Structures are given as structure tokens and as C-alpha cells.
Amino acid sequence: MKIKFFRNISGIDMHSRTQVKRAIWGLAFVLPWIIGTLYFFLYPMIQSVIYAFCKVNLTTKGDMFVPVGFDNFRYLFTQDPHFITNLTKSIGNVVYQVVIIMIFSLLIAILLRDKFVGRTLVRAIFFFPFIISSGVVITILQEQVLMTAGTISQQQQAYMFAAPSFDYFIEQLSIPESVTNLVKTVSMSFFNVIWKSGVQIILLLTAVNHIPSSSYEAADIEGAAAWEKLWKITFPIISPTILVVLIYSIIDSFTDYGNTIMRMISNFFELGQYEYSATIGIVYFVIILALVGAVNLIVGRKIHYAV
């Protein structure tokens, strides 16, 4: 009896030590993320909030931070002639870009699910742009390869890639200006969709591959059409991943380097107006947070979680 009792105690101790070891290893893996969040997000965020409520003077002697209250925010919403316009344009662009990216990514994921010769290569091709591109790189490609910079002088600075002007090529076709503008818009949208869909395709492809084949077999026995299987089987099962991809696409589009508000933040920072750059960044952060929360609240009600 005593031997059995001590065995039970030793078993409990071994279980406790195992749990402690797992907790320590878990903390060790999460610790770099915690440190990165504190140092690269929380600290700059607090610093930006301080800047937004002050007048920053880094080049003159005296007080570096002069409190001004909400003056920067009042100027942003009442006197800045560009912020509201750029914000409206930014939200409008994100809406249609996200819709197109979601449809395109889901279509490619469904196509890449089936086995065919060269499937691995095709998968790598669609994910390759995400590996080599960042917000800055894709902007360079747009402005210097497709020659979509705002001014002629900017277009002439295509020193990285000696590519002919896409606008010039279209103009040489002698087609109406309305058609020319439509072709330019479609080509740029197609470029953006391909280069911004890498992560979305991988996530949706993973979700599609985890759909049990028995579900489709049962649907085939019942005589379900392809459209019915898509709406009744594919969409409900991968709906949690669709929500993740949707939120990721919204944030990625809002924080893209070519976004008009992101350009405003960068331009004011380069001009040394750190307090105004921080003000725009904080307001923009709150707006994105509110929009993502609204999308999560609305779309989240339609999500089907498998038991």
C-alpha cells in the first residue's frame, strides 16, 4: 500500500515537471516575439503618441518637446487639404483590391489543389513574388518597370531596370484615351493582384487541401453540381481561413508602401515634421483597427467552425 502511494506521488511529480518543462520551452519560443513586440511596436507607439501631442524641435536649442495638446489633430481634420481626400482614396482602393485579391487567391488555390504536371513549379511561381518583394520593392517595380511614376522626371529615373515605358507603348497604338486609361488601370490592377496574393494563395491552398475527400464523394453520390459543392462544402469548411486571409489582405493593402496615406507619413517624416507624421500614423492606425474590428464582427458571424 505504501509502495503504491509513493508511486502515485512520484508520478504526479514527473507530470508536474513535464508541464513545467513544456511551459519553459513554450516561453522560450514566444520570448523573441514578446521582445520584438515591446521594442519594435510598443516603444515606437508610445513615442509616436508623445510626438503627436507636442511640437518637436530637434534642430534648435531649448525644449525638444513643447506640448500643444490636440492642435496637430485639429489641423489634420480641419485644415489639411489632402488628408481626407487621400484617406477616402485609400479606403476605396483597399475595398476593390481586397475583393479582387480574395477571388483571385481562392480561384488559384482551388486550381492548384488538383494534381497536374508542373504543379510544384506553378505553386512556387505564385509565391515567389512575396519572397522577393516588399512594399518598397513593388513600388520600384511599378514606377520603374511599368513607368507609372507621377511625373516625367520620375519616369526618367528608371536606372534599376532599363524597360520601355508601358504608357508610351499603349499610346503608340492610337486608340481612344478612355480605352488607354482602362488598359493602364487593368494592367496595374493585374500586376498588384499577382504580387499581393502569395500568402493568401498559400493559406487558402492549405485549407482546401485539408477538406476531406469523403465530403466530395458523398456530394457526387447525391448528384451535387460543382457550384453546389463549392458553396455547400468548400466555402463552409475553409471559412475560418477566409476570415484570416481577408483581415491579412486588408492590413497589407492599408500598410502598402504605395498607399497614399503611407506616402504622406513618409513624406512628412522626411521633411522633419515628426509630430505631424506621428499624428497621421496614429489616426490611420485607429481607423484601420476600427475597420478590421468591424470586418471581423460582421464576417465572423458567418464563419463555420468544425466541431
Describe the protein in words.
The chain is mostly helical and 307 residues long. The protein has a single domain (77-300), classed as MetI-like (MetI-like fold, Orthogonal Bundle), CATH 1.10.3720.10. It is 76% helix and 2% strand. Strands 1-2 form a two-stranded antiparallel sheet. The protein is globular.
Largest sheet: 2 strands, antiparallel
Question: Distance N terminus to C terminus?
Answer: 43 Å
Q: Tally the beta strands.
A: 2
**Helical residue percent band:** over 70%
Mean pLDDT: 79
Low-confidence stretches: 146-163
Question: How much of the residues is beta strand, in percent?
Answer: under 5%
Question: How do the strands line up in the largest sheet?
Answer: 1-2
Identify the overall geometry: globular
